[in-house]
Amino acid sequence: MKLISRVFVSLALALILSHCGGMGSGNMGGPTVEERQAAIAAEPRGDHYIGRRYYVQKTRFWGYLRRPGESWDRSQLVMIREDKKRQPDRLPENGPPGQRYGFDQNFEYKMRGYFTGRNAYDPNSNQILPEFMLTGYEVLNRKPGWLFRPDDRYDPYRITLYRR
């Protein structure tokens, strides 16, 4: 009986330690902190926003927006209003891979538009978020890597990326 207990404890400890080793590393890849800071500092200023699509299944928020030259720590999670322009991934949710709602998870965009001054409710994430009226966009980067920190972990089933 003692042998079985020791084996069980050893296996449990090995599992816990192997899990802890991966907790500090992210799963989004990307540049170093210094490279990211330099890229943001070099962004052309203008009357637009930098947007990062953040897709979590069953939610309706679009992602994070910030002004050019500002850190992602100053960004806002937003709801997109599509009266003037439809958001980039406005596709069926059950379409083929690469051609469905959320296909552009983590794409970085140059977003044109304005905040309406209103808030919108996302019932699936239970959040009240600022509403952004989209008037245009263009893809800047399809694989920009981590959003807030190099140890960011993306999970398509729950909200894991927060400003810190």
Gist of the model:
This protein is an alpha+beta fold. The chain is built from two helices and five strands. The protein has one domain (32-164).
Topology record:
Layout: H1 2-23, H2 33-41, E1 49-53, E2 63-66, E3 76-81, E4 108-122, E5 127-141
Parallel strand pairs: 3-5
Antiparallel strand pairs: 1-2, 1-4, 2-3, 4-5
Characterise this structure:
This protein is α+β, with helices and mostly antiparallel strands and 164 residues long. It contains two helices and five strands; from the N terminus they run ααβββββ. It has helices at residues 2-23, 33-41; strands at 49-53, 63-66, 76-81, 108-122, 127-141. Strands 1-2-3-5-4 form a five-stranded mixed β-barrel.
Low-confidence stretches: 3-23
Q: Strand share of the residues?
A: 25-35%
Number of helices: 2
Mean pLDDT: 86
H and E order: HHEEEEE
What is the strand tally? 5
Major sheet, described briefly?
Answer: 5 strands, mixed, barrel
Keywords for this structure?
27% strand, disordered N terminus, 5 strands, 5-stranded mixed beta barrel, 164 residues, alpha+beta
